[in-house]
Structures are given as C-alpha cells and as structure tokens.
Amino acid sequence: MNSKSTTWDIVIVGAGIIGCSIAWFLRNTPYKVLLLERAEPGGLATNAAAGILGPLNETEGPGPLLDLMQESLALYPDFVREIQAASGLSADYVPSGIISVATTESEEDQLEKRWIWQSGQGKDLKFLTGNSLRSAFPELANTVRAAIHYPHEAHVFAPRLLRGLLSALARQGISLRPGTSVRRIRPGSGDILVAETSAGDRIQGRKFVLTPGAYLNEMDIPPPIPPVIPANGQILSVRAPDFPIRTVVFYPPKGYFVPKLDGTVVIGATEELVGYQTRVTPGGLIEFLEPLRRVCPRLLDSPLQLTWSGLRPKTPDGLPVLGVHPEHPNLLFATGHYRNGILLAPVTGRKISGLITGQIDARTLSAFRPERFS
Description:
The protein contains 7 helices and 18 strands.
C-alpha cells in the first residue's frame, strides 16, 4: 500500500472509518490519494465502536444533525454491499432494528417526551407498553415498562467494516502510510500544502483533509482551528451465543447492548473527559452494568469476553466539523463525529468527496462549518 511519491492530489490525515470512507468515495476520481495514520488504522475510535446505526437514539430533537444521520443510514446498505463486493470481507451489517426502553415511571415520562417529537421522524415507529411490549420482546425483564421501537435502524461490526474498507482501497490503488504522525501543516508554493511528520519527513499535497478524530488539536495547523476534545468511552463484550434478543437495546441513563452475529454481545458505554487516557475502570463498567439489571439481567451472568475503551472526538456543540477551512480552501475538515463516526461515515465520505470534486455546494454543510466556533 505504500508509495514513494511525495506529491499528492489529496492527502487524508487519519485512516479511521471517516478518512477511509472519504478515500472510498474518491476511488473513481482521477486524483492520487494518500492516507496517513499516526498509529494503526481505526485504533482509537473505529475499532472501539459498538457499530450502532441509530439516528433517533443519538439526537435530542429535529435538526441538521438528525437529517445528516438519517441520510447516512439510508446510504448504508449500498455502502456496505459495495465494500463487501470489492473486498470479499463481510461487515456484518444487520438491519435488526433498535428499541429504547424505560424501567421506571420517570424514565417512561422521558420516553413519552421523546416519542412526541420522534413519532413523525421515521417509518413504522411504535410506542410499546403492556401486552404489546411483552409480546414483541418477551425476553426483557418484567421491570421494563415501555419502549420505542425503531424497526429500520441497524448495526455493523465496526472493525470488520474498516478491514473491508482498507482491503478494498488497496485494490483500488489508494496508498496508506501507517505509523506516520503529522505534526504541522503549512502553505507551500502555489496551491500546495506541506505536512511535516514527527519523523522529519515532508509530504506535499494539493488538498489536505483532516480526519484525525480526537487528535486534531494536537497538530499545528493554520488558525482558526475547531475545538475538538477526546471523550473516553469504556465498553465490554460477553459471550452469549444462545442469547435470544437480536435487536439493539438502549436503556437509561446511557447504556446499550448490541447482539452481534458471532454470539458476542457488546455492552456500553461511559463518557469521561480524562484527556487522552484510554482506560477501563470498575467504576466505569458499573455505570452501565448496574442499570442493565433492570433490563436484561441474564447478560450479567454471561462469560466476560473483553473490556476496552476508545477516544471519541467531541466538539462543544456536539456536531461534527465538516467543510473547508475559512482561509485556506485547500484544507478541509472531517472530524468531531463524537459517538456517531460509524453511523456518519458514508454521508461524510460522500459530502467531503463532493466538496473536493465540486459536486456539492459548501453551503449545504453550513451547520457543520469549521469556523462556527470563532
């Protein structure tokens, strides 16, 4: 995958799911594309993600973020199918649906408030209580009082999706340089930008796309720089090959579990602002395991498989940063996706590649513009 070329049409800094998705949508263009990755592709965010594709569980109301998520969810079946055909590797895309549950009266009140605005946002959504809830999901604990069912939401196995993308990109001639940490980006001669790496190398490109996730503010780039901070998320998995629930389940305050095709059930997740630490703590795991007892206690008796954590790139307003640098038109941003990098990957790839090729007007991404924090 490596190339000795030092001048590129497009240099993408960051080879997680976002950077690779942008490269994927550029694969059929005449541009010479280089992906740079500071460590291993997807190591801090993508490979730590549960892979949930659930727009309505990740937003507090209608708006541009929900619209972007819904657009991306609609792209997912073709996105996955094309990557699998090109790579021969499955992403384990499962259109299982998602439910969001309540186990107390106050939680049910909050769920009903969500239903007021969500009921008109998706097809075939249902608010379930009593016999209808028990009939649809008999395996849930009796303490579950109500649920919203989102039948068209889904999940993928994020590390497998990324492996498929990397394999497909290699076959398309996209170059990758892992272990390349960009420290500084500055204008060069003409329309060229120059990146300096921690190893002292210089890489030239006509356009740079910054997709480094939580590490954006660790690079020296021309201001203004969007503020992105790392949010550590702890997560675990258990082995439950005979687990009867196949739907993704969200439960208060911030828990979820995701039954995967291989018999693994992924359970998460915390959110901690502890800098660039990736850590797993007993207190963090208890935070989402204790409320699970009221939803599906059976999972607490399943054999523990793995625990891990990852860094999510978070912005002050919770929206991603998508678009062109206000003073350097050959420098673009695609970061700050927070908890939704996997979900937003195909729409980000499509829109950022469209900005590069001139097929998309930057004004369509005004809600996510990089300069909104200035």
